[in-house]
Every structure is written in C-alpha cells, then in structure tokens.
Specification:
Helix content: 25-40%
Strand content: 25-35%
Number of strands: 19
Order of helices and strands: EEHEEEEHHEEHEEEEHEHEHEHHEHEHEE
Shape: globular
Distance between the termini: 65 Å
Structural class: alpha/beta
Length: 390
C-alpha cells in the first residue's frame, strides 16, 4: 500500500494536533519487535538525559482492534464517496480506505454502513468533509459528520433516521453550527481492581483512545498509590478518568482542570461513582500552584468553599499535555513526598524529572503502548522525595 497516513485522533495537546499512523507498518507479526524498539528507545533517552529510571513495566496493546476513536477525510469522486488517508510526502493524493484494522470492531462495522447511507442520500452526502467515530468499551458509539455548508431541516430529518438505523448518537457540524441527534456524549464503564468506573466522554473533547491500555494505566497508577495515605492533589484531571480510579485510595482529593467541557464531564463522573471525597476546581496548574503558595487568593476556591488548609497532601498526580510541567508547577512538585507522573511525551517528562532530581528520585516506571506502530509511547513514573541523611 505504501506509506499512507491517516489522522490518528486528538493527541495529548488536548484537542489540537494528531498522531499519524503509517498503514504499511500495521503487521501483528512485527508488533512485539516494534514495541521492544520503542521501550529500548525510552530507556536510552533516560540514560542520555542523565535520569536514573528503573526498568519499566511494559503494557502492550492489542495488535489490532485497539482504537476506540478514528477520524477520516471524506472524498467525493463523481457520485462516489470514500474514506481517505493521505501521504505527507504527497498531501494531494487521497487513498480510499475500505477498512481500518487498528479500529475497534464497532468502528469497523459502522464504517461501511455509514458510507453506504451517506452516498445514497443527497442531503447527507452533499459537501461532507470529515467523519469522526468515537466508541467505548461499553459498546456505545457517537459519529460526528463535518460539513462545508450550513445544515438545514432536510439534513436534520435524514440524520434522525440515520442515527436510529445505525444505533448511534450523531452530531452534525459546520462553521458556527452544531446539531445534536440524541446526545453529544457517551458513557464509558471500565472495570479496574474490581471497581466499575464510569466516565462521560464528550464529543470533541479529549479521551484516552486505546481502551484496554487505558485500563492498564489506571491499574498501574492505583498500584503506586496503594497504602500511601494522606490527601491527593491532581492536576489536568480532564474528564476524571484517573480521578475516579484514585479517589478511593486517599482521604481527600483536590482535582483541577481548565477546560469547561472536561470539568462538566468530570463532575458527572464524580457523582456517578459516588466520589464524595473529591473537590473539583476549574483552575490552571500555575493558578493552583500560586494558591497553595499563598501568593494569590482565588474567588473560585472561596465560592466552592474549598479550604486549602484542610488538606494534608501527600501525593501529587499529574497527566499534563505534551508541553509537560511549567516552572510554577515544578516548584509545587518539589514540596510533595510523592509525584505520580503520567506522560505522553518522554522528552518533556525526562526534562521535568531532571529538574526535580535534587529533591526526588524515580522509584517505579512503566510504559504504555497507546499507539501501536507509531513512535509514540506513553509512560508513567513514581517519584519519591530523597531522604536527607545526617
């Protein structure tokens, strides 16, 4: 097939950039070797950065059918409509895609049915530009259709019939317009350590793309927190994916997130999981750092009756965007006994850990292959405060 790429969904810039997947590399027989090379690369990068990291625990992905999200351009050729991918070396060359083996079974089942219906109905096909699939381990699906024209009543009528026939939630988008058929979110339910954790996944928001690897990440994070006690501060909590998993292991939790849609989803998850020991503040990481340093008072904390003096923080949990932790947040981290760090970017992770080397050491490590067949590798480190002798 050659080196053809598709957009691989929203990456950890939290809703902007995407990771590209070369279809020519999708070969389950090669997957163990490709993953081993990535793990070696992570260990080599740690050594080169002068960061002492224990041999990481490796969490592999399923070699096929692992993607709960997929995004495709739609290509019009006469009366025919196709899902297409592009080669970065020749961006104008659109290559039709009949099947996408990395996608979850539900996505693969929906792809031909949706294409057939879109092609057959002029109101649905006209000027469609992009299709995005979002599914869950629970078995729900949401399809977003993106257009280069305003959507009218004829489109909405046809969309209701399409959503009912396919058994999906449906969203239609054009510039300045969003039409929701059903709902614009899905409910995920995932079992970890005997807990059934529920989260809400918002259309257009960030979600973990590889469901089973996400389960492994939650399990690993919980294992690092067992028996630690005290209270937890979580930054960049997103839709509460880690929050609801970690909350039962701590006395109290203060979680922060800046995105309004993510905060709303996280609040739903806290209530759905009965996480009554969690307070959620819509704040950036540098803001909560300033608040904890008593450099600035924030009305948002007062309005929510969040008393920072009532917390006895023992652990800081961070799952930041690709840029990693900023200087104020690194300063905050230095004051914690333990820092649990999940990262989508080994470069910024190692830079941040290097900046904490005088106060903390790495005691546990893991890597998670969220994106098989790409160079991308998620990682997790547990840092503990160095003991001062004498």
């Amino acid at each position: 097939m050659g080196l053809i790429y598709c957009r691989y969904g929203r990456s950890r810039t939290r809703q902007t950039n995407s990771t590209t997947l070369p279809l020519s590399r999708i070969d389950p027989a090669r997957y163990p070797d490709l993953l081993a090379d990535k793990v070696k690369g992570f260990c080599r990068a740690s050594t080169d950065a002068g960061v002492s990291v224990p041999l990481p625990q490796v969490f592999a992905s399923q070699p096929l059918g692992y993607r709960l999200r997929a995004e495709f351009r739609m290509w019009h050729t006469g009366g025919r409509l196709d899902y297409v991918m592009f080669d970065p070396a020749d961006p104008r060359r659109a290559v039709p895609v009949e099947d996408f083996p990395p996608a979850a079974d539900l996505v693969r089942a929906l792809m031909p049915k949706l294409r057939t219906r879109l092609q057959a109905e002029e109101n649905m096909r006209r000027r469609i530009f992009q299709v995005e699939f979002l599914t869950t381990l629970k078995g729900e699906a949401l399809v977003s259709l993106v257009y280069h024209q305003r959507l009218g009543i004829e489109w909405e009528t046809a969309a209701h019939a399409l959503a009912a026939d396919l058994g999906v939630q449906l969203v239609g988008r054009s510039r300045g317009q969003k039409i929701v058929i059903g709902r614009d979110w899905l409910e995920e339910e995932i079992e970890v350590d005997g807990l059934r954790l529920r989260t809400r996944q918002i259309e257009g928001g960030f979600t973990q793309p590889n469901g089973e690897v996400n389960r492994a990440m939650l399990g690993w994070a919980r294992a690092q927190a067992v028996g630690q006690g005290g209270d937890l501060l979580e930054l960049y909590c997103g839709n509460g994916n880690f929050t609801v998993a970690l909350a039962p292991l701590f006395g109290k939790v203060l979680a922060t997130e800046l995105s309004k849609t993510s905060v709303a989803a996280a609040r739903w998850g806290l209530e759905a999981n009965g996480a009554c020991n969690v307070a959620l503040a819509r704040m950036a990481s540098d803001e909560i750092s300033a608040a904890l340093a008593r450099e600035r008072a924030f009305r948002r904390l007062q309005e929510q009756e969040i008393d920072l003096d009532a917390y006895r923080f023992s652990t800081l949990f961070v799952d930041p965007p690709r840029a990693g932790l900023d200087a104020p947040t690194l300063g905050l981290a230095r004051g914690f006994d333990r820092v649990l760090y999940i990262s989508c970017n080994p470069v910024t992770l190692l830079n941040n850990v290097g900046a904490l080397a005088t106060t903390h050491r790495v005691v546990s490590a893991a890597v998670f292959d969220q994106f098989p067949y790409t160079d991308h590798l998620e990682s997790g480190l547990l840092l503990e405060r160095r003991r001062v002798c004498g």
